[in-house]
């Protein structure tokens, strides 16, 4: 037993007090634990509150997101509709453009086919012309293969050139000279130099042999043939068509081929010099035309000299006519002067007669004062 003051505590009271103390201790411990729990739960409550706020915010964001998604879906639907409409318009434009392009391509293709057909027609026509020309070339080869027809071909070409360059009365074709030789063309030039002969020559065989030569031996043989032919032509022209007192002291050898002319001047200059020595000048169609134009100027100058005497005579007669006209103009002027003087005298007499008539009309019977001048009789005009 335990005594506390006035009280004596027995085992039972002590057990009750222990239980009470234990209860109080447990209560204190519970209160402390509750305080600690409250202190511990306070941040948790704050976190729970913040979490609730966040949940609310998340709910509001979700609602906003839902509205945004709805707006986005609506905008996407509108954009898709606009895109579909734009695509439809674009497809229509592309379709229309493709249709126009196809139609244009079809028209261009049809036009190109038409042009192609026309060109094919032109080609066919050209082919026909080529075929015809080939026949003409073969005919020309046939003509040139014959010596007589080749000579006629050169004469025709010479006649054409001379006819275009000179007046008809200044030349004669196939003129026969005093020695009985017939020249292809004779130009009537004045002295000097006098009438000059142009004769056509065409050494075609030797030239073609020169062109066809494949070996040096063939080339030498063809060159020898060409020299022989040209020398023979030069000699023939010099002997036949250069006549003293009848023709000029030179003649022209006409080659109707520029190729032959160029070959002679390029590779056979000795033949050209031999022609100069024999006073036979070799000309081609081009150089012949130039020479004939020079001859035309000479003919024109000669004809002007021939007409100079007649022109002088006409000028003398014209001068005499002018002098005679001057004399007759002077005589006419003299007659006009005499007529003017006669008219002046007539005017004076008329004035005097008028004054006398006025006096008589006024009955002026006083003695008339004598006039200082007498009436001047009219003079007879000179013949």
For the largest sheet, list the strands in their spatial order. Answer: 3-4-5-6-7
Query: For the terminal residues, how far apart are their CA atoms?
Result: 218 Å
Element-by-element helix/strand order: EEHHEEEHHEHHEHH
Main beta sheet, described? 5 strands, mixed
Strand content: 5-15%
Low-confidence blocks of residues: 135-144
The average pLDDT score comes to 76
> What would you call the shape?
elongated
Tell me what you see in this structure.
The protein has eight helices and seven strands, in the order ββααβββααβααβαα. It is an alpha/beta fold and 383 residues long. The chain has a five-stranded mixed beta sheet. Helix 2 packs across helix 7 and helix 3 runs antiparallel to helix 4. The longest helix is centred in the first third of the chain and has 135 residues.
């Amino acid at each position: 037993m335990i005594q506390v003051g006035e009280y004596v505590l027995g085992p039972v009271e002590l057990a009750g007090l222990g239980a009470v103390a234990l209860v109080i201790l447990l209560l204190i411990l519970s209160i402390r634990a509750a305080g600690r729990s409250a202190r511990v739960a306070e941040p948790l409550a704050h976190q729970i509150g913040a979490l609730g706020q966040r949940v609310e915010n998340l709910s509001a964001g979700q609602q906003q997101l839902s509205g945004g998604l709805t707006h986005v879906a609506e905008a996407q639907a509108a954009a898709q509709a606009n895109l579909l409409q734009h695509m439809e318009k674009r497809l229509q434009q592309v379709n229309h453009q493709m249709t126009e392009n196809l139609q244009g391509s079809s028209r261009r293709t049809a036009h190109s086919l038409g042009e192609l057909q026309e060109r094919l027609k032109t080609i066919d026509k050209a082919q026909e012309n080529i075929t015809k020309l080939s026949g003409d070339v073969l005919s020309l080869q046939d003509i040139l293969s014959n010596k007589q027809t080749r000579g006629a071909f050169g004469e025709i070409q010479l006649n054409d050139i001379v006819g275009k360059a000179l007046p008809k009365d200044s030349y004669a074709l196939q003129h026969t000279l005093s020695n009985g030789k017939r020249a292809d063309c004779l130009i009537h030039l004045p002295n000097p130099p006098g009438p000059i002969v142009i004769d056509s020559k065409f050494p075609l065989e030797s030239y073609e042999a020169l062109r066809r030569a494949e070996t040096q031996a063939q080339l030498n043989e063809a060159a020898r043939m060409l020299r022989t032919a040209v020398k023979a032509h030069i000699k023939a022209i010099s002997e036949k068509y250069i006549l003293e007192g009848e023709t000029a002291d030179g003649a022209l050898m006409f080659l109707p081929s520029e190729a032959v002319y160029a070959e002679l001047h390029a590779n056979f200059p000795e033949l050209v010099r031999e022609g100069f020595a024999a006073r036979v000048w070799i000309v081609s169609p081009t150089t012949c035309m130039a020479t004939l134009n020079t001859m035309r100027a000479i003919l024109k100058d000669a004809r002007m000299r021939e007409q100079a005497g007649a022109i002088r005579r006409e000028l003398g007669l014209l001068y005499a006519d002018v002098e005679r006209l001057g004399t007759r103009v002077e005589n006419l002027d003299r007659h006009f002067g005499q007529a003017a003087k006669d008219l002046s005298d007539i005017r004076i007499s008329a004035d005097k007669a008028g004054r006398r008539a006025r006096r008589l009309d006024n009955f002026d019977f006083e003695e008339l004062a004598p006039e200082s001048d007498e009436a001047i009789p009219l003079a007879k005009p000179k013949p």
